[in-house]
Amino acid sequence: MLPKWCDKYSIHNDAIDKQHKKLFELAANVEMISDKPIHKGQVKFLLADFFNYMKEHFADEEKYMAKIGYPELANHQKIHKSIIQSMIDLIQNIKSTNDLKEKLNIIASKWLLEHILQEDMKIEKWHQQKLKNANNPTQKQDKNYDYICKCKGKIHKVTDEIHQKIQISKAQYKCKTCQEYIKLK
Q: How many CB atoms neighbour CB 176 within 10 A?
């Protein structure tokens, strides 16, 4: 059973939240028809509606990320492109109405909602931290974090920006000396 929209999924942007709510509704419609007899034309219409709305939403979301200066915009755009391409690939290989319903259900649950619940929540987490830093003048904006590697006694001073990339997108950086991934001390 797919989750229903609630405020904990909000990224505190009215336009994007409204689109996310609509995508949750479309996903619920897909789930509703998944085990009911339905004409192939109806499923194709729902699929086309979903596909077109998703493309529009991704474009708007990318504009929003650019506006707030989200550092993982390029990676997020790659994820969007991958979802769209995977959707195109699925659509091209449809064998029956049941196959079409099954693939539409995969799109709704796995790609779309997982994307909103995981990837889009990273945007919100980053943005809230940025707002917190901006509203807290006593907090240093150029804070460094101590990371360690296998080198004995070596400390890597990591900027807040790099630290955020590691925390949000699980990026990994290697020590140039020992070639091991650095870890927060």
A: 9
